[in-house]
Design goal:
The chain is 22% helix and 37% strand. By secondary structure, it is an alpha+beta fold. The protein has a single domain, classed as Aminopeptidase (3-Layer(aba) Sandwich), CATH 3.40.630. Strands 1-2-3-4-5-7-6 form a 7-stranded mixed β-sheet, with helices on both faces. It binds coenzyme A. Coenzyme A (COA) binds next to helix 1, strand 4, helix 2, strand 5 and helix 3.
Length: 147
């Protein structure tokens, strides 16, 4: 398995299949995807891209007092047949030093309720109540400190 930086366009097929199966490709394009400080990582197995995650220089007000510079995680997805093999964890482990290098001390995300267990395993903690994102479902704010 190899983790590499990928172009945002490379993430669309996996975002589409795993995160927005009922949407269009346009639904898989996120605000900030092309921003200068955004980066996209991919995990490859036998040369095939099978897991992706994207990282945005974006603050969440709830954490600002303690963490003035933050990153946001979005588009975390592994193809179903490759889930449970440590690929998303590997993407996050690669991202942490890059985030730190940008002087940021926190990574946050709006976690799907169904993925909360995954985020807890890799060290995120939950914050606040479950809220609904229309057409996608219940989510909860989660974050991990990066020191
Ligand atoms: C959630 C998801 C990204 C995890 O990716 P993955 O490559 O399977 O994750 P990993 O293999 O690195 O998992 C790390 C650990 O978390 C566990 N885990 C993975 N998904 C989990 C889940 N949904 N709930 C609870 N635990 C989970 C794994 O079993 C593994 O445990 P272990 O260390 O004891 O073996 C993947 O299941 C997925 O794409 N799900 C559908 C899309 C989604 O919900 N994305 C998140 C949007 S916020």
């Amino acid at each position: 398995m190899k983790v590499l930086r990928v172009h945002v366009k490379d993430t669309y097929p996996i975002r589409h299949k795993v995160l927005r199966p009922h949407g269009t490709v346009a639904d898989c394009m996120f605000k900030g995807d092309d921003d200068e400080l955004t980066f996209h990582l991919g995990a490859f197995k036998d040369g095939k891209l099978v897991s992706v995650a994207s990282f945005y220089f974006e603050n969440k007000a709830e954490y600002e007092a303690e963490h003035p510079h933050q990153y946001r995680l979005r588009g975390m997805a592994t193809l179903p047949e490759f889930q449970g093999q440590g690929l998303s964890s590997a993407l996050l482990k690669t991202a942490f030093p890059l985030i730190k290098q940008n002087q940021c001390t926190l990574l946050w995300c709006n976690a799907r309720e169904s993925a909360e267990g995954f985020y807890q395993k890799v060290g995120f903690t939950s914050n606040g109540e479950i809220f609904d994102i229309p057409l996608i479902g219940p989510h909860r704010l989660m974050a991990i400190e990066i020191r």
